[in-house]
Amino acid sequence: MSFKVTCVYDEGAKENTSLIGAKGSAMLVDVGERRLLFDTGLRGRYLAHNLSCLGIEPDSIDAVVVSQPHPDNYRGLDGLLKERTKPVDVYVMQGMYPEKSGLLSKSSGISESDRANAILHYDDGWIEPIPRVFRTPYFDSGNGYKEAYAVIDAPRGLVILSGRGVGGPENALTEAESRFNKRTMAFLGSLDLEKSKKPVADAYAASLAAHSVDDVYLNHRTGRNGITNMRVNLGLAGVKEFYAGFSYTDERS
Questions:
Q1: Reported pTM
Q2: Could you give the CA distance from residue 112 to residue 39 in angstroms, rounded to a whole number?
Q3: For the chain, which terminal residue's Cβ has fewer other Cβ atoms within 10 angstroms, N or C?
Q4: Left, alpha or beta for 144 (phi > 0: left; psi -120 to 50: alpha)?
Q5: ∠107-57-39 over CA atoms, to 5°?
Q6: How far is CA 154 from the centre of its chain?
Q7: 42/249 Cα distance (integer angstroms)
Q8: Closest CA to 96 of 126, 130, 73
């Protein structure tokens, strides 16, 4: 089984490309001939632009998973729906993308004209939107904040995708490894360290080290200081940026 994860939306973007770096997070998972979009970024037009720059046809995406009800992660969905000619399965937390009195609220993230292209699924537990790619339950990260992760069940180990990483990686690592009885070989995406002190980064790094995670690719809410602090613990080679246009594969290329 081959797979590829491409960051398609982030504050940072690959140099010497036309990709837009903007607030938010979205990653595309390719497994065989199936594709899953994990989160959608904040601005739909930027998501559509970046997908076009990367040569990704919107209709080629088989499922969308939204990790949490935060605008950085869910508001950009309309940019994908506008470009599609057929509906797509969208897996979200209960209560997201509401419809009020027959009209969509402006903050819902889906325009009235494009809602028909979203087949909304409100599932709370483990699900498998495309083969070998799973979404965790919505874990409580503290203060009532809930967030789900994506997990790729690859032959060499698990790959965990994080849209924000509130509360750190431990819940996702522990739950995924227990369910699949495999170690985690890679953690990709965000840890919420942008405004956190160094001891928080130390704790998150200790969690990744305790689980013997080989590859750590960080972006979004990690922030520059967060990435630096993680590198202090895990080494320069052990922590890499994962901005728009960057990819991770099972060949590590």
A1: 0.95
A2: 20
A3: C
A4: left
A5: 35
A6: 17
A7: 25
A8: 73
The alpha carbon of 35 is separated from its chain's Cα centroid by a whole number of angstroms, namely 13
Q: Are 236 and 243 in contact (CB under 8 A)?
A: no
What is the spatial order of strands in the sheet that 88-91 belongs to? 118-121, 88-91, 63-65, 34-38, 26-31, 3-9, 247-249
- DSSP for 30-99 reads EETTEEEEE---S-HHHHHHHHHHTT--GGG--EEE--SS-HHHHTTHHHHHHH-SS-EEEE--TT-S-E
List per-residue pLDDT tens for the chain, 253 residues long: 789 999 999 999 999 999 999 999 999 999 999 999 999 999 999 999 999 999 999 999 999 999 999 999 999 999 999 999 999 999 999 888 887 534 334 456 688 888 899 999 998 899 999 999 999 999 988 777 899 999 999 999 999 999 999 999 999 999 999 999 999 999 999 999 999 999 999 999 999 999 999 999 999 999 999 999 999 999 988 899 999 999 999 865 3
Tokens 């609220």, located at residue: 105
CA atoms of 231 and 239, how far apart (whole Å)? 6
Q: Amino acid identity, residue 209?
A: A
